[in-house]
């Protein structure tokens, strides 16, 4: 099962072309428009969505930029193989998450996030200065006051991680995490249903990360960050029939 895409007329905000793109991306990712086949013609899409050819052509260009299709004169617009899709594109990633019945995309996302953030935690431990150390310590103390408020804790959890990534100086890593993790957090499938007492366990994991960074121990910081990201996903990952409940290693 997957979360349905809202009807076209209910999606407000942004350009109309962007809304059309979201629906076509959804159909491509779900297999409604199979790889190697052609999209409906421009007149057919105009009639379906009730929009002009200009908007359809703009939408096709956006789909090409995302690596999903190629428009060829005389051959129409063909759906390209998945290997060329831009999975860092937020619209493509959102659709992949919604239609991924086995959670493979989210498993991969967690692995990528763990790899990047453990490296940034290690670098942070090496380069963090006195002011950043003090701010990180204060954030840990504040996080501890939020364990009885799941919404507040989630917000401050993100702040804690972003402080570490920013202090590491790895701007590219921070940008990648932002592009994939921010979109994943909007999915109920990624957030899952944490077990009772999960926030206390999570807090202890954050404290171990912070302790390693403040002690300027890069190896411990990397290890604790990876354990936290992988184990927290394992705790909240929706169970699948006869499937593992933790990311692939």
UniProtKB/TrEMBL annotation:
Top-rank taxon, per record: Bacteria
Domain HTH gntR-type: 14-82
Keyword Transcription assigned: yes
Record GO terms (molecular function): DNA binding; DNA-binding transcription factor activity
Keyword Transcription regulation appears in the UniProt entry: yes
Family matches, as InterPro entries: GntR_C (IPR011711), TF_FadR/GntR_C (IPR008920), Tscrpt_reg_HTH_GntR (IPR000524), WH-like_DNA-bd_sf (IPR036388), WH_DNA-bd_sf (IPR036390)
Keyword terms, alphabetized: DNA-binding, Transcription, Transcription regulation
Coiled-coil regions listed in the entry: none
Gene3D superfamilies registered for this protein in UniProt: GntR ligand-binding domain-like (1.20.120.530), Winged helix-like DNA-binding domain superfamily/Winged helix DNA-binding domain (1.10.10.10)
Protein name as it appears in the record: GntR family transcriptional regulator
Naturally occurring in which organism (per UniProt): Virgisporangium aliadipatigenens
């Amino acid at each position: 099962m997957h979360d349905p895409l809202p009807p076209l007329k209910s999606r407000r905000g942004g350009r109309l072309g962007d809304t059309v793109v979201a629906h076509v991306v959804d159909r491509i990712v779900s297999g409604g428009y199979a790889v190697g086949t052609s999209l409906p013609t421009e007149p057919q899409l105009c009639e379906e969505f009730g929009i002009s050819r200009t908007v359809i052509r703009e939408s096709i260009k956006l789909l090409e930029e995302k690596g999903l299709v190629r428009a060829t004169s005389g051959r129409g617009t063909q759906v390209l193989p998945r290997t060329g899709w831009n999975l860092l594109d937020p619209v493509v990633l959102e659709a992949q998450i919604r239609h991924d019945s086995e959670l493979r995309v989210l498993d991969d996302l967690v692995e990528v996030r763990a790899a990047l953030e453990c490296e940034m935690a290690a670098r942070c431990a090496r380069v963090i200065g006195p002011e950043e150390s003090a701010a990180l310590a204060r954030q840990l103390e504040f996080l501890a006051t939020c364990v009885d408020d799941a919404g507040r804790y989630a917000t401050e959890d993100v702040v804690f991680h972003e402080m570490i990534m920013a202090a590491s100086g790895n701007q590219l890593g921070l940008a990648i995490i932002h592009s994939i993790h921010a979109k994943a957090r909007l999915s109920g499938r990624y957030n899952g249903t944490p077990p009772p007492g999960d926030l206390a366990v999570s807090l202890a994991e954050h404290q171990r990360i912070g302790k390693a960074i403040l002690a300027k121990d890069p190896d411990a910081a990397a290890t604790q960050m990876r354990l936290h990201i992988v184990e927290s996903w394992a705790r909240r990952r929706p169970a699948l029939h006869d499937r593992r409940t933790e990311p692939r290693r």
